[in-house]
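Retro notes
What went well: the complex prediction finally ran end to end.
Inputs used:
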Amino acid sequence: MSTFSAIGEEREIDRDEYTPGVEPQPTWCPGCGDFSVLKALKQALPEVGRTPEETLLCTGIGCSGKLNSYLDTYGFHTIHGRSLPVARAAKLANPDLEVIAAGGDGDGYGIGGNHFIHTARENHDMTYIVFNNEIFGLTKGQTSPTSPKGHKSKTQPHGSAKEPIKPLSMSLNAGASYVARTAAVNPNQAKEIIAEAIEHDGFAHVDFLTQCPTWNKDARQYVPYIDVNDSDDYEFDMTDRVEAQEMMRTTEEALYEGEVLTGRFYVDEDRPSYGEEKRSIGEMPEEPLAERYWDDDYEWERSHDMFLDKHA
Amino acid sequence: MTDDELIWRISGGSGDGIASTSQNFAKALMRSGLNVFTHRHYPSRIRGGHTYTEVRASADPVNSRGDGYHFLLALGDSFARNPSEGAVYGNEEIKPLSENLDELREGGVIIYDEGLLDASEIPNFEERAEENDWHVFPLDLRGLARDMGREVMRNTAGVGATCAITGMELDHVEDLMRDAMPEKILDPNLEILETAYEQVQEEYDVDAPDVSVPTGEHDETQLLMSGSDAISYGAIDEGCRFISGYPMTPWTEVFTIMTKNLPKLGGISEQVEDEIAAAALAVGASHAGVKAMSGSSGGGFALMSEPLGLAEMTETPVVLVEAMRAGPSTGMPTKPEQSDLEHVLYTSQGDSQRVVLAPGTVEEAYEQSRLAFRLAYGYQIPTILLYDQKLGGEMTNVPKSHFDRAANPDLGKTLSEDALSEQPHSDDGKFHRFQPEVDDGVSPRSIPGQKGGRFLATGNEHDPTGHISESPDNRVAQIDRRAEKLAAIRDDLDTVDTGSYAGPEDAEYGILTFGSQQGTVEEAVGRLNDAGVSVKSYGVSDMLPFPTEQVRAFIESVDEVLVVEMTASGQFRGLVQKNLGQYGEKLSSLLKYNGNPFEPAEIVDGFETAIVEGDGDAPGHQTTFVPAAGD
């Protein structure tokens, strides 16, 4: 038996394998968009052939962080805003793992914004799903980084004076090599985009519009939605950085005008992932580091043999 | 005081190569058969500002900077600021010669670069030299270096002159230059070294000063090593192959050494966006099955509080190093202090659980770096190695054989897939990673990618599978199990005994200290006993879990105890009293927090004035005495 025999296993996968026995029914509010993320993952993972035990799902804190409780894989429910640094180190330690990170808009674009920028910049081969409901849900409806200007809440009683974060543009400029937006109200597109994001060799960022009927908008407010890749109204080349940027800007502004634009906005298949970059300069081993600790034949180096003579 | 020793100080500007020149000189002395110890003082400045390094050399073991110095080599400061009168820095050009001049011992030697320094700027310089019987050698080191190579080579000229006056052969210095320098600069440097040596011998009476290099002999190969080197090699020998960090003085030294060496070992180093990420990456790498570390200094370590707590709650093994410098806030970035003790012990929310070790010497830094990994992985608990700018940067000789030990890549209680299949699982196949009833509280773990090992790691309280739980019974069981690990670690540490003891066992008085002050305290204890004061010392390394019984026995065995530490508020004394719950009337403190480590004489004087004579502060020192309760 090899050390990590769940990795690369070829077999039929039943989507029920991802449903935990202890809490099969999520406790999200009725009508919550988060259900759609869970469903899209349960569909996409078997489709791309990733088993629960070769997948590591890292989440932050918030309603979105509960994803780990409802998707049965190896999981690391970290702390607020810190799913990405945990996730990307796991990927470096064992590049054979399928690493997915997830969090909310407060988690990823607010408190964890620095990690988001740098993880995108480094182009780690992983998927990052941001549950964007334009509100803080778990703490009961405060203004979030994606809430529109003028948004009123108990923490912004006079209406927010801030422009919202532009998550797609930020992601592109930071260096993500796959940037998409989908919506809970469009489950088919969501499944396709999540599957593509998992298959993409680089940092794939999916801004997932998840309505919050309890504290913010309900599902009806995300309908109708337009897929910019299918619509005749929008012509752009998603492999062209400049055209992608313009399309993103249009999309980000349209959301606050009540128009929901979704789809793939930027895809760069050529940019090497961070792991490839590190290996190409000799800063990362070819074989997964995590496997070395199980190799009985490996001769562990000692400082005594390698580094001490220069001190003599 | 050892008579048969030399304390040589080289001073100049920050950025003028003082550190590398002194390191080579120390190594040359070590190769000649002497024991050496260096002390580094530098400003928090980009370029310029007075900096010096002292090299102490003796045939006998040396484990502190010593008192004062015998020999001053004052070079120029190429980056000195000379603003108008009254500006904060004043005229800096003369500082390499003028600063701390009073600490030069009677009969001492001064070489100064008259190409850059004008001694007449120092008030009463000649009178002071005469009073103290100093032997002054004004040499145009800059001119000599410029004529034969480049001005920056004046350090080499200074070393050549030093050798001529102290009677040291040039062989070892030349060998080191050949090892370190590329050919292009080697030849002019060798020429400058020899010319300076010969000129001084010809033009001066080099036998006049009674200052010379002692002679000694080593019976085995010695290495010149700093605390930062030792910590790094300890990590490597424990199979650590992942480090993540963000630069911060003085922790950067360990980060740099590891980063340089890890690629040669197929390891990974990550410089990341901030210290929150740095610690979180180490946690993520460890979770995925790699031995990992991170670290920082005070301000950066503050950012690590969150991931540290996460590692505690998820029982992810990780080693963090904390290189203390003077605080609070940005404090004095390049100056040593021990005042992050409480920060490191208590930061992060909840009834947190960690191990904190504070090595006292370079040798202990290696041993306890290894110990930190063994405890972290053996007991699935974050372990912090607490040291400071002093221990990190000071260099001393250590026998090479000290490091000749087997590598230990062991991950601790981590299960293979075969072993996992024998473990309890829930009906849905989830592995019980956090079983409440296990030996020493350590529940075996799995690694992502293993079949049959699926579980959830979470910062929330959780049940055996990792699923979030707020059940009161589960809460108590999990908290109690995690607490059991610390008790087991205490038992484990009792078999290792990281403490360091000096002085006669039946002594009348005691000195307690922790971390990097240990060597200085032990030297002071030797001198006090020579002077007829019956005193012993105990250098404590285990900060958490605390060696309560050992410290109690030490305090019980003496009449009075002086606690020596580099803090302003007596944090270590507070820790002792917190753990022991008594002895307030028996413990007094000697504190120093001016940015410089203790000299042995300060502890000797402080002890005699405060304890033996019982009347307050020692005169003439920037130390503070705090009496015992009720005194």
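What we learned: Strands of chain A lie at 55-59, 74-77, 98-104, 126-132, 178-183, 203-209, 225-227, 260-267.
What to try next: split runs per interface for comparison.
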